[in-house]
Amino acid sequence: MADPFPETGRLVAEAVPGDNALAVSVSELAGRLKRVVEGEFGHVRLRGEISGYKRATSGHVYLCLKDEGAVIDGVMWKGQALALPFQPQDGVEVIATGRLTTYPGRSKYQVVIERMELAGAGALMALLEKLKAKLAGEGLFAASAKKPLPFMPRVIGVVTSPTGAVIRDILHRLEDRCPTHVVVWPVKVQGAGAAAEIAAAVRGFDALPADGPVPRPDLVIVARGGGSIEDLWAFNEEAVVRAVAECRISIISAVGHETDTSLSDFAADLRAPTPTAAAELAVPVLADLRLTIESYRTRTERCARRYHQRGGEKLAAAARLLPKRDQLLGGQRQKADDLGARLDRGLERRVATARGLLDRQGGALRPAVLGRRVEAARARLADVWRLVESLNPDRTLERGYARVEARGSGDTVTDAAAARAAGALRLHFRGGETVDVAVERGRSRAYLSGKPEQPTLL
């Protein structure tokens, strides 16, 4: 038989006598391996610790499961990842159910995870403590972030299941203590999608407008009945805890019984051991409130009466120290009487003086005296009129004079310069007659004497 592996090397592959093994491609070999692995390991359950957990933008989850001796890659598609009842984290021990397959692109095998569960209560508590430490480090549980509860809220929002006994207990307790307007936001309190609904309900209450058709609550109660840690796990989810911590409305967390504790209890402004206790913490007892108000009213009335009584006593004591009315007004009355008598006498003297003055002035108003005064005034008026007539410039015209005035302005001309400046003159004569003349502006001529001077020989 010929050696299928001869010693001599060949550059080009050729058929060898006795060798019937055909060369296969890498893809064909990878496909055979994939079919073998998927046929042999079509259903597996793996227990291991999560490592390298990563959620892609597509929603698919990629991780590794490891133990002390080996590591295997795993992938969980988006649909199965959204259905997980908890948030996987690195270091958490889980049990993954799925099928084994290969990834030819990288020559590696991996498990396609269809379901993932925590490996016992210990792993669940480890996950809880790890998430608690993370959120506490961010300050979500700080006491300084807690908001005070309103004393008597007008509207209370309740986030719980609409069909359970919890909502009935809360409503009955509120009705017994102090009837209040309650708005219920129905949600699932366990199972797939419960955490998302609870977080959306808390944020929905926080986003309600103050004047909208649905009244904005003054207080929110997040409540659920008792159960195992798996039943209460929705209230440990990071989305719920962050929604409770970021809510601007005061929140009471009432999840489970008194011995149950969830992360939402730490994030809420107040933790109630039970839903019924949450209703008791939310509102005061109306009867006690009325009794307190009545006691305050009685005390206020008693204090007011006491102050009124003491004020009356002080007023009476002060009134005894005041002087009597006659003592205060006696001197003033006497002074008023004296001034009244003086006023009467003064008026009588004033009337007598005025009457004497009137008699004297009346003598000066007799007709004979008035006639003489009128004649004297007429004589003075005639003398003044004669003086005025003598000063009238037109009176000189009667003696052969003329009055000269400028024709344009009507001003009286008194010298030659004013006449040359006016140019045109108007002459006024007796009887109101006028003559207009013009002033010549040429140079004056030099007239020679009648006899010329005798020439001289010298």
Automatic annotation (TrEMBL):
Where in the cell does this protein reside? Cytoplasm
Q: Which UniProt keywords apply?
A: Cytoplasm, Exonuclease, Hydrolase, Nuclease
Domain OB-fold nucleic acid binding: start-end pairs: 25-117
Instruction: Identify this protein by name.
Output: Exodeoxyribonuclease 7 large subunit
Exonuclease VII large subunit C-terminal domain boundaries: 140-433
EC numbers: 3.1.11.6
First-listed, main subcellular location of the protein, grouped into a coarse class: cytoplasm
Family (UniProt): Belongs to the XseA family.
Free-text function comment from the UniProt entry? Bidirectionally degrades single-stranded DNA into large acid-insoluble oligonucleotides, which are then degraded further into small acid-soluble oligonucleotides.
One Pfam entry name: tRNA_anti_2
Q: Keyword Phosphoprotein: yes or no?
A: no
Any one Gene Ontology MF annotation carried by this entry is: nucleic acid binding
Reaction catalysed by this enzyme: Exonucleolytic cleavage in either 5'- to 3'- or 3'- to 5'-direction to yield nucleoside 5'-phosphates
**Quaternary data:** Heterooligomer composed of large and small subunits.
Q: Which gene encodes it?
A: xseA
Q: Transmembrane: present as a keyword of the record?
A: no
What are the GO cellular component annotations? Answer: cytoplasm; exodeoxyribonuclease VII complex
Q: Name one GO biological process term.
A: DNA catabolic process
